[in-house]
Amino acid sequence: MSEHQAPRSTHHTVHSVAPSDPEPVRPEPGPAWRRILHLPLFWALVCGVLAVPGYLGGDLEFLSFLLTLVGGWLCGFSFVNATLRMPDRRGLIVHIAGAVGAGLVLWLLIEEVPALLAPKPNPARAFLAVVQMAAVPAAGWVWLALIGRVTAMIGARDAAKASSAPQWEAAERGSLARFRAVPLGTRTLASWCILTAVVVAIVILVVLIATGGTILNVGPKLFLLLCVAVPGLPAYLLMSWLLRRRAVDCAVRFDADRLRIEVAGAERRIRYRELERLVWRTEGDFARIEARGSGVDLTLMAGIARKPGGTPAALPTLSRRGVRLLEEAGLASRTLRGGRALIFERVPAAPDARP
Predict the structure, then answer these.
(1) Which residue ranges form the domains of the chain, and what is each CATH number?
(2) Displacement of CA 245 from its chain's centroid (Å)
């Protein structure tokens, strides 16, 4: 080696690699029996089983009739909710197909199937009567929800042309978003739906009693129109109007250490480390914010609210800063199927493994 040649360095430069973000820890699902109790189809089956003895007796009682209507409505309610959890276009296509299929099944149950079961014993005809009566509110709810869904989509499209969705604003210590919403929990909303279904069922019962049951002979299409659409559509529109009247101005702000939610001028504060659950959904009729923790349990339904101009209210997309603040506070994030809702939940720390 020449004297003038510089020795080759044996040291290598090591570039630091930023650690990849850990996979979010998903909370473990609850026990199977608890998940089953939250399924509307399970309660629809219970209603059907309890209603069969009344139909076997031949003398239909009010309780059996009501159980059948509620069970059928639960079937339609479960189907509609399943389509709402899908992406918009796919959910609309499935909803339309389900509405057409429900109408076809209802026609078959009233026009074709009874002739096939005419020579069968009484239990078969009793089961058919249960299915026939349950199919009416199920098909009716699917069609009413489809009408409401198409109307909401048309309104959202017009609103998108007329005005933009709420945007994040710079605040003193964070970012702020203003919107219209109805302070209403999902359980309360389900109670409103059940109350509406019960009112429609009572109206149908009164019509059946007043006509002596002869209205069942008018044919499936006219019966569906007279006994479901006529009382059901006004009840649906009345429920929507009553809920939207409760809409108020709201605001949500992500500060450096806490979440601030303002509802009709009253502010609630939750520190991120005390936040147990946050649901953020920006689209659809179920667009909402759910926040629970530090003594606060609040749900704001933005999807069913209206701005003063009549356009649907909405929520802005959750900012990256907000997501980072929540995850740094120990909340695990996950998305619902279709990516339309972002959920943050606190996962209990695993106990230390000691010998």
Answers:
(1) 32-162+185-244 (no CATH), 169-182+247-346 (2.30.29)
(2) 20
